[in-house]
Amino acid sequence: MNPAIISGVTTEPAILGAKELTSDPELEARFAESAHQILAELVGRGAALGWVEPPLRDDVAELLGHVVSAAQAGDAALRAAYLDGRLVGLGYWLRYARPTHRPHADLEKIAVDAAAQGRGIGRALTAALIADAREAGIEVLTLDARGDNTSALHLYRSLGFTEYGRLADFVAVGEHRYDKVFYMLDFRQRPRSGH
Known about the structure:
The protein is an alpha+beta fold. Helices cover 35% and strands 31% of the residues.
């Protein structure tokens, strides 16, 4: 891996995959630490990333270890965005484990450092993960998001995801309740009707 990819000053993020992140033990260790910092800060600010309290370092390291192992087996994709030599975002999808759902995957997380939001990093990460899913032969890529996360929902719609369900007031964060919104991106070719 060329260290200049993540160490130089750039305006566009460098998007790395699991293979690149794990090819250098030092980069891999820095990635895990930086990912923990991003996730803990975002959750501490109330971001909907699956935790109520900021995750512990060990929890993030265990999660990333699981995703990297799944990626090496062809059952996941992991992407990391670097800008000016600093990790500014990450995301991943995991193939469903049930045999009847194996052709499909769930986009589990997209997290962008608060200071880097609004610069197209979430879009770049999501687009790279969509391309990875297509390449892996995924038929349907799904995700769910908290209903008040309007920026993320807009991003997903702009990339071709469609809403296929909603559970009203399903997510409980203290006294607050939010809808859980389900989105999908169907890669299967549909026959055209009427032609």
